[in-house]
Amino acid sequence: NEVLRLDGVSKTYAKDGPAPVEVLRGVELTVARGEVVALVAPSGAGKSTLLHIAGLLDSPDSGRVLLQGRDMAGLSDRARTEARRRELGFVYQFHHLLPEFTAAENIILPQLANAVPQREAAARAADLLGRVGLAPRAGHRPAELSGGEQQRVAFCRALANRPALLLADEPTGNLDPETSDRVFDMLMTLVRETGLSALIATHNHDLAARMDRVIRLNEVVA
Ligand code: ADP
Ligand code: ADP
């Protein structure tokens, strides 16, 4: 029961130019349902490229991407966007919250885009904010929140549409070590409580060790 499978995925940038950059070569990777996998890679090894491919933002040159058993090759742009919206949740190093909306609104809006009724969307936002200890902050705008609080809201937003898979790129990389530790624990608790599967890129070996499995990505040696 796999949520994600990358099967022989290869990617080279500027393939037809004078200086091609081979980034991924025959990558095999799976995330099972309910599994939390750490992606550890030295800078430049292609971590972002891999997350972009898994997140359907970019296509591999060869190899297959299967999301919940479904081959993503040959999907129309529209079907691809739909799959991103319904099946995937994203967290980045920076929160990317909408500054003019409150914490709760930032979690409600993507649900409305997925046709979740307003009342249900508000209930989910309240439930998720409660789980990360931010119930009292529901009505605050991002600028009124600390870095750790902003990132916790971003986690809630990523989970609001109940995705099958969470893709995270250095989700606590922008926080000081102590806050990072605490906020990461909350993310793990949230993921476990909702039975979510996740692929989380991190440079932090202590954080990686707290996940179910670690996948190391090495630089392609030409
Ligand atoms: P990481 O996230 O592990 O640091 P990236 O996936 O961002 O690695 O990049 C891997 C390599 O591919 C780097 O050498 C980077 O310079 C190169 N690269 C990334 N994007 C492009 C692009 N659009 N065109 C050319 N080279 C790129
Ligand atoms: P219950 O059916 O008892 O609510 P669930 O295990 O289905 O138990 O969910 C536990 C809680 O987590 C519920 O509040 C539910 O709304 C929430 N939840 C379940 N799945 C997700 C998900 N993928 N993302 C965010 N919240 C979720």
Automatic annotation (TrEMBL):
- The question of whether Membrane is a record keyword is answered with no
- Transferase found in the keyword field: no
Signal peptide start and end residues? none
Source superkingdom: Bacteria
Give the species this sequence originates from: Paracoccus marinaquae
CDD domains, per database record: ABC_MJ0796_LolCDE_FtsE
Q: Which InterPro entries match?
A: AAA+_ATPase, ABC_transporter-like_ATP-bd, ABC_transporter-like_CS, ABC_transpr_LolD-like, MacB-like_ATP-bd
What Pfam families does this protein's entry cite?
Answer: ABC_tran
Q: Identify this protein by name.
A: ABC transporter ATP-binding protein
Q: Which PROSITE patterns match?
A: ABC_TRANSPORTER_1, ABC_TRANSPORTER_2
> Which GO molecular function terms does the record list?
ATP binding
Q: Which family does it belong to?
A: Belongs to the ABC transporter superfamily.
